[in-house]
Amino acid sequence: MTQPTFTKQTLTYKTVDGNDLLADVYVSQPVAPRPVLIWIHGGCLMYGDRNQLKEYQRDIYLQAGFTVVSIDYRLAPETKIGPIIEDLQDVYAWVLAQGPHLFGLDGQRVVVVGHSAGGYLTLMAGFCVEPRPKALVSFYGYGDIIGDWYSRPDPFYCQQLAVSAEEAHKNRGLFYLYCRQTGRWPIEVGGHDPDVEPEWFAPFCPVQNVTANYTPTLLIHGVPDTDVPYAQSVLMAQEFVAHGVEHEFITLPTLGHAFDVMAGAEDSTEVQAVFEQVVAFLRNHS
């Protein structure tokens, strides 16, 4: 693939309590009105940042004709899920309002792509922002945040050395492991107990908010995913069928979680084939 020529700007899309929330904007040269791709990092809503965007993926999107906007958002447990969704809504509104004159994008053609927790936020964008994006791509995302996979001790993570509540606060990785071993993720991220108030979580579960107006969506998930169950994308696909939502579902029989960022992913013919389908889907809907 030919290296695209582009400029990069790091811009503040929002300031909260004196802290700037940033977006990296990659614009192909020469500047022209282009559709924009909002890219959302993963990290269980607890860690990660906009710099997780892999260069080879950025270049694929630039070559496909998109301006790429990789975003930060506030993280749990310090920030709960409601304000995190507000960040998603605010950056979306910022892109539409500021994008045309700041970096020449076509504000009428916006797509959203995210991975893992970013895939979850991408699925939220299918119903919680207006006007709706033209297309969504969810890499191993999830639509149900209070299912047993998140609200009960996880068998895979329980095979690892147990993390105590005291140890959990040493770093975010340990905190996530503690949450998966204890089933506390919804409590720590939502601030509510799903066993007591399941209805409180309904506005934050994409699987419960699919309607006929939901954005066309491409789901990508590996069957042996040990972090986000493959069943999470199956549930979303079932809702799309039930409501007549245009969608595609790429099932990967042998690839696990974060398959596209593992060593050698860029040179994998299987991964390359996935991104060819991603680009085709995005172009067809933008």
User: What is the quaternary state of this protein?
Assistant: single chain
Please name the fourth-level CATH homologous superfamily of the largest domain.
Answer: Alpha/Beta hydrolase fold, catalytic domain
- CATH first level of the largest domain: which class? Alpha Beta
Largest sheet: 8 strands, mixed
Could you say what the CATH topology of the largest domain is called?
Answer: Rossmann fold
On the 0 to 100 scale, the average pLDDT is: 96
The name of the CATH architecture of the largest domain is 3-Layer(aba) Sandwich
Spatial order of the strands forming the largest sheet: 1-2-4-3-5-6-7-8
Please provide a written account of the structure.
The protein has 286 residues and is an alpha/beta fold. The protein is built from 10 helices and 8 strands. The longest helix is centred in the first third of the chain and has 23 residues, at 81-103. It is globular. The mean pLDDT is 96.
Quick overview:
With 286 residues, this protein is of the alpha/beta class. Helices cover 36% and strands 21% of the residues. Strands 1-2-4-3-5-6-7-8 form an eight-stranded mixed beta sheet, with helices on both faces.
